[in-house]
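User: quick one, fold this
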Amino acid sequence: MHFQDDHYGHVDTSDFYRHCQNTARVVDPYSALAKLFVLPMETLPGGISRVRFLLVAAHQISEGLTMYSWMSHFLSLLNTPDSELSASLPKLLEPESFQKRLPLPQEDHYPPIRGTRARQRWFWTLTLILRHIRKPLPPAFPNPLRRLIPRPHATPMSPTYDKTLNYNRTPPLNSFACQSILSPSTTARLHRLCREAGVSIGSGCFALCGMVMMELEEARHPYTPAASRKPFIGSFPLNPRQFFNHHAAPDSLMLAFSDGLVLPFLSSDLDPEGRFRLLARSAHRQLRIYQKRLRKEDEAKLGARSPGRVIATNYIAAVERAEAKLPPQLRTGVNPQGAYPANVNFSGATCGVSSVGRTDAMLKQGTYSLDGKEAVEKRFAADFRSLDMGVRVRDDEFLIGIGGSAEHVFVNVSYDANAIDEVRVEEWRRRMEGVLEGGETARL
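Assistant:
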C-alpha cells in the first residue's frame, strides 16, 4: 500500500493511471500480486471527504467480475469498526486460516468427464478431432481505428510520479484508456430496443459496438463494394463458472475464451434501429450458447463450439499456449493434438468486447449512509461513488469493457496506442454516445 499524499499534494487520477500503465511493471510478483495506491484526500462540504484508490492487480489473480466482488468487500472493510478489524487479525494471520481462505485455482473446478475410462478417452478423442475439422471463422475487417504505420516504440512518460513509480524501464508499447458513458436517454433507448428484439442487454451492447465499428470502417473505406465487405468479429472472454456450477461470489480469476462472435456488415444507409435489431438478434443467438447452465445432455453434443466442449477446448488451448510461450530449452514437446493440428482462425478479430452486466447489483452508491444517526454513532462511514477499470494491453489490442445500471451504460476501453490512433479513438467515443441518438452526440 502506498499513500500518495506522503509525496504529492494533488494527483490527477487519469494521469496517474496512464503513468501506471506506461512505466515499469507496478507489481513485482516476487513480493506481491497487487498494489494499492491511496490518492490525496479531498475535503467536500458537509464534513465529507473524497478518497480515491487505484488498485493494480496481476491478471493471473483477477478479472472484471472478481474486481467488483473485491471492491464490494473492500467497502465493507472500510465500514467495519477498528476494534473488530484488530480482533480478527490474529486469526486471519494463522497459516491454517490462509489455507482455508485461499481460493482454489480454476483448474480444480473443472468437472470430470462422466463415465468409464473408455468413455473419457472417447470424449477427448472427439474433442481433438473436432478442433481439427472445425470450420474457421470468416476473415473480419480490421480495426478501423488503427494507424496507417504503427509507432515502432512506446513514448516514455515524464517522471511526474518518480517517488512511487519506476521510470527506468519503458514498456514495449503505450497502453492508453478511453471512457464513454451513454446518456440516460440513450440507455433507455438501448433497453427498449433490446426488449423489442427479445435479446439481452449484453447482446445489445455487443451489437452497439459492432454498429460503431462498421460505421467507422465504412467512413474509412467508403468505396468498398457491399459484396466485398467483411463481417465484424468481436473476441470475448467467457465467465466459465456456470460450466462447473460455481455459484459463489467471484473471488479469483476465472476465464475462458471463445473464438469470437460474427456480425454481418450492415450499411449505415439502413435505419439505425433496424440495423441494431438485426445485429442484436445475431449476437444473442451466438452468445446464449455460453450463457446457459451446462446440462448433462450437452456433453454428448457434437460440435467444436458446443457448450459441453467449451472447458475442454479451452484447456487444450491453454496447454498449447503455455508450451508455445516457454523458451525452447524448457519446452516439454507435448502436443495434445498429435497428428491432427487444430484448425485455427487465421484472421484476427476486429476488436475485443467484454460485458460484466449490471454492476449496481455488485457495487452501488448508497449502500452505506454518510449522514444521519447511524453515521454519527460510527464516527466514520464510507460509501461508493464510481469505479473504472482497464488492463495493460498487448500488441494491436483494442479491448472494450461494458457494464452499467438501469440509468447508464459505461464503456471502458484499453488499447495499444502504438497501433491505434488516439484521434480516431475520440471519434469512436463520440459515435458510441451518439449512434442511437439520431447521429448526434449524447449530452451528459
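User: anything notable?
Assistant: The chain has one domain: 2-108+139-294+346-434.
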